[in-house]
Amino acid sequence: MRSLFAKRVDDIPKSFIREILKVIDDPEIISFAGGLPNPEFFPVEGIKEAASKVLTEDGTNVLQYSTTEGYLPLREYIADRYFKRQGLKISPEEILITNGSQQGLDLIGKTFLNEGDGVIIEEPGYLGAIQSFSFYRPKFHSIPLLDDGIDIESLKDTLAENDCKLFYGVPNFQNPSGISYSDKKRREVAQLLEESNTVFVEDDPYGELRFIGEDIPSIKNYLKDNTILLGSFSKIVAPAFRLGWIVMSKEKMEKVIVAKQAADLHSNYFAQRVIYQYLLDNDIDQHINKIKEAYGRQREAMVNSIKEYFPPEVSCTEPEGGMFLWITLPKELSSLDVFEMAIKEQVAFVPGSPFYVNQGGKNTLRLNYSNVAEDKIEKGIKSLAKVIKRAL
Amino acid sequence: MRSLFAKRVDDIPKSFIREILKVIDDPEIISFAGGLPNPEFFPVEGIKEAASKVLTEDGTNVLQYSTTEGYLPLREYIADRYFKRQGLKISPEEILITNGSQQGLDLIGKTFLNEGDGVIIEEPGYLGAIQSFSFYRPKFHSIPLLDDGIDIESLKDTLAENDCKLFYGVPNFQNPSGISYSDKKRREVAQLLEESNTVFVEDDPYGELRFIGEDIPSIKNYLKDNTILLGSFSKIVAPAFRLGWIVMSKEKMEKVIVAKQAADLHSNYFAQRVIYQYLLDNDIDQHINKIKEAYGRQREAMVNSIKEYFPPEVSCTEPEGGMFLWITLPKELSSLDVFEMAIKEQVAFVPGSPFYVNQGGKNTLRLNYSNVAEDKIEKGIKSLAKVIKRAL
């Protein structure tokens, strides 16, 4: 008998993180497992004023259907901000508003990927992208991340041996590793992709959250037409709105917009109007600075505690921004085993293997610091250190 | 050279309605072309109060990430309402919140359709569904609509000759035709689908908007496990929120939820909380009654004007609810030609052929009455009558 479900559904890895988050739904547990922004910095008052204002001034319009592309002034704001921050010249016609970056990934998969198409992904790679693209049944090629970004030699080999349509990467404070690409690596990546006619899908949800060092230009600066750039309000304003965007050349936009229309007509228009009003009436840079200061302190607390308490065989990344860092245990340890021991000690994290498309990563794990208070960070890392020492 | 885009993108009909709406973006034109609810009935004050309340009482939570399934109390509300309105017993665990019904269609296509799978669709059929499903490259089988619903003989033949996985239909006040299935037809459809193990995708965005006659039970009543029921707040509260839902058995839900997570993690949580608060604090039935009264009057104005001014060779459906009615011109006329003439007379509609998957329908057209004031309806129909007579 035929199967009720489509073949593509069988290929999808069940969200491991989702399962883990269920296990640790206990307020006593110190959880480094989530990926949530710190709600302390949600601009509740600003959003309340913005919502009231748009409803008072333009109520019937803000509640009506709207265009698939998204609210034009919001797209103009996004384009302006790219210019102000990086000198990137982007036209609002090249911007599509999506339901968070996640929908951007789905629309890209839908518009570009035939079954078996080659997709390059970082190792470890962002789980949401792996999940999204998997629905379109591509062939993943994973390339290790080094301290300053993707392994260029391995990228060269992969491009030489395979026809790769897309390369999905997170050059700033990557999820899960916290690693950023150096400017040199960005230029090298851009040149290699230019030569092989591969599109770079540059996911940048954390780019505004740098608390150490200077901003590094987006790869879009070096690979103009062949970069699809994704952004999001989730980490700088609030995630509940599910508002993100895709920047792409008009030729690509024409096709992606048809996919967006078929997917849900358009993103929540009320939310677009509220966010835009909020951005108009508030100093977003000041707001982002507050978030960066806090995350910087939380990250420092975590790195310091790791250095103090973890055994020397354990290494960690030292992110300059974002929300995550990455731990590599000695080869003989399994982070899944450590996870089970850790839960009993009331501390949780995400084991690393789901971030690998071809097995591997068994001795790695991801820690989130943005949503854990500083004093709890030290306590949690101390417990985790005890568990790791016991496992060794 | 390989194509940049996926093969599935080539199959998608460009949205004809979208193109038409661009042509008629002139406030002087009386447009029966759109599909918009009347914004006069958007509960602006109620939404404003609800937004303010949820932000005041639970600000940080309503702005945070949330669950893929959707806000549980909202899903309980929807389940309760099915029970109160139709005695349908649905558990909240069988309900997934989506970005309008449109996203429901996309998720269903994604979860169930392999390339070439048989999908039955009404003729004329809802354009958004044709577009959504087309991305998954099914084989459409279209079955004519009669005055009381689908042509049962033709459905029998189609099911006998083809393996059909899904049947997509809109039994209440269908878009584009305004036709409703009689109770007898619903039972017959359910029985035939039960026998052939075909899933009925019952799209019901207009079901609450009946202004003539009595409600007829949903097909879900007669085909329990094998019906996927879609609903939406767009027509009874406000479309900008993009909030709808899918009702389906748990086995199906388990798969569809993975597709939803990959598509955008979850629907706008702030909007879910606002709508739920609005529903708690207001009498939604009273609100819907106001909409129904107005649409009933608008529909009456349109049907009366058609009877008065259109030549007798032209027939129209007489919907008992919803937002649309359907015109059949004499065979020799092309509604596309009539459209071009009509635009010059400052009146617009949607030609019927895009609602047919296999050509056809050249002499048909759709009229919307919900978003046109009563006095303009008579004026517009009069102009249209003049054009049709000239074309004859």
UniProtKB/TrEMBL annotation, chains A, B:
UniProt KW keywords: Aminotransferase, Pyridoxal phosphate, Transferase
Listed CDD domains: AAT_like
Pfam families referenced in this protein's UniProt entry, alphabetically: Aminotran_1_2 (PF00155)
Cofactor(s) demanded: pyridoxal 5'-phosphate
InterPro entries named in the record: Aminotransferase_I/II_large (IPR004839), Class-I_PLP-dep_aminotransf (IPR050859), PyrdxlP-dep_Trfase (IPR015424), PyrdxlP-dep_Trfase_major (IPR015421), PyrdxlP-dep_Trfase_small (IPR015422)
Domain Aminotransferase class I/classII large stretches: 41-384
One MF annotation (Gene Ontology) recorded for this entry: pyridoxal phosphate binding
Subunit structure: Homodimer.
Family that this chain belongs to: Belongs to the class-I pyridoxal-phosphate-dependent aminotransferase family.
Name of the protein in question: 2-aminoadipate transaminase
